[in-house]
Structure formats: structure tokens, C-alpha cells
Amino acid sequence: MLLVVFAGALVQNQLLHELADQVEDARGGVRTSGALLGERGTCVVIGVVAVVGAAACAVLARATPVAIAAAAVLAWGCWPARSCA
């Protein structure tokens, strides 16, 4: 389950990083997922990663508090993307 949380948080972080560096990437001719999806699409993917990761943690966790903590970590990863709403 720790791997699910880590992978989800890593994907969220990478997508947020791509949004932050969008101008520099465009100047350098770099195509990223963030550029391909656009700001709103990237924020949607960040939210989907949180929901899918939280659901996977709920299935994998042997204790409810652990599942709640894992879901909170992934939900916290969505917080910077709130400006997309």
C-alpha cells in the first residue's frame, strides 16, 4: 500500500511541476503531459490519481486508520491544483 501512495504522490508532484514549468518547457520545445493535457486536464488527472489511489489504499489497507491516512496524503496532493476549479 505504501507503494500506491508513493506512486500516486509522485505522479501528482510531476504533473504539478510540469504546470509550473509550462512556459520554460514551451520555450525549449519540450512536450510534456502538462502541455498536452492543458491546465484543466492536468488538474483533472491529478484528482483522478487521488481518487484511484485512495480507493486502492482502501482495498489494500488492513486497518481503517491506515487507509484514511493514505487517502489524506493523496488528497493533500490535490491541494495545489485547486486553482483549476
What does this entry look like structurally?
The protein contains four helices and no strands. Helix content is 80%, strand content 0%. The model has no long low-confidence stretch (mean pLDDT 85). It has one domain. The chain is mostly helical and 85 residues long. The chain is elongated and about 50 Å long.
What's the arrangement of secondary structure elements?
Elements: H1 2-20, H2 22-27, H3 33-60, H4 64-78
**How would you classify the helix and strand content by structural class?**
mainly alpha
- Overall average pLDDT: 85
Low-confidence stretches: none
Number of helices: 4
Summarize the structure.
With 85 residues, this protein is an all-alpha fold. It contains four helices and no strands.
Descriptors:
85 residues; mainly alpha; 80% helix; elongated
